Amino acid sequence: ATCGHGCKYGECMGPNKCKCFPGFTGKTCNQDLNECGLKPRPCEHRCMNTHGSYKCYCLNGYMLMPDGTCARSRTCAMVNCQYGCEEVKGQVRCLCPSGGLQLGPNGRTCIDIDECSTGKAVCSYNRRCVNTFGSFYCKCQLGYELKYTSGRYSCADVNECVTNTHRCNLHAECLNTQGSFQCKCKQGYQGSGFDCA
Predict the structure, then answer these.
(1) Is the pTM above the cut of 0.90?
(2) How far apart are CA 107 and CA 142, in angstroms?
(3) Could you tell me where the DSSP H helices lie in 25-152?
(4) What is the pLDDT of residue 12?
(5) Are the CB atoms for 165 and 174 separated by under 8 Å?
(6) Sign of dihedral through CA atoms 12, 18, 22, 26?
(7) Average pLDDT per run of 10 along the chain, which is 197 residues long?
(8) Are 193 and 169 in contact (CB under 8 A)?
(9) Phi, psi for 192 (deg, rounded to 5)
(10) Taking every annotated instance into account, which residue ranges of this chain make up the domain EGF-like (predicted)?
């Protein structure tokens, strides 16, 4: 079986037919499936979609059970947690629905961890980190785009001269470089390449 466009988060099952891993969708399995929008809903109270998965969390005064349901808890109601709580050996602790969130100074609300600035996120050398609420993802560096070549996805240089996305002067030549471009004034003209006289 060959899939010309590849199956990013899945397996090739037949001519250009991808079988997606759980949590992903699309012709090439390149899109995250929003499980929170599915019927029946996977969580009883609230649902947070994550890359390839989801997290359940409860309203204030409820405790999250292993099956994703929420059980009423007087102790949780008293603590007033933003995203529900857990009781361990009689100790009540507020929960955050994702590892990319941490309990704030008040111990009740959750604040975002910027994985990009703390260095917790590891992106390959030609990708940059983009922080999201509760998580992060890796995106191609500026001047590069995601392409499927020789059996895998990688960040390939964008040729701004061919795609006509350069800002060179009318009287300048565009020269493509890795991740960028240069402008050089044509013969008989001088300047930066963006301005030629």
Answers:
(1) no
(2) 38
(3) 74-79, 115-118
(4) 86
(5) no
(6) positive
(7) 80 87 90 89 85 82 77 77 77 80 89 87 82 84 78 80 86 90 92 91
(8) yes
(9) -80, -15
(10) 32-71, 112-150, 157-195
- 146-154: Cβ within 8 A, 24+ apart: 148/5, 148/6, 148/8, 148/28, 151/6, 152/6, 153/6, 153/8, 154/126
Residue 162 tokens read as: 């061919």
The DSSP code for 147 is: E
| Residue among 22, 25, 24, 20 at smallest CA distance from 10 | 20
Kindly report the number of other CB atoms within 10 A of residue 160's CB atom: 21
Distance between terminal CA atoms of the chain?
A: 57
**DSSP code string of 15-61:** TTEEEEPTTEESTTS-EE--GGGSSS-SSSSEEEEETTEEEEE--TT
Q: Which two tokens stand for residue 111?
A: 């604040």
pLDDT tens per residue, range 58-98:
877 777 777 778 888 777 777 788 877 777 777 778 888 77
- 3-state class percentages of the chain: helix first, strand second, coil last, to nearest 5: 10, 40, 50
Predicted confidence at residue 149, as pLDDT, reads: 67
List the domains of the chain with CATH numbers.
36-112 (no CATH), 158-196 (2.10.25.10)
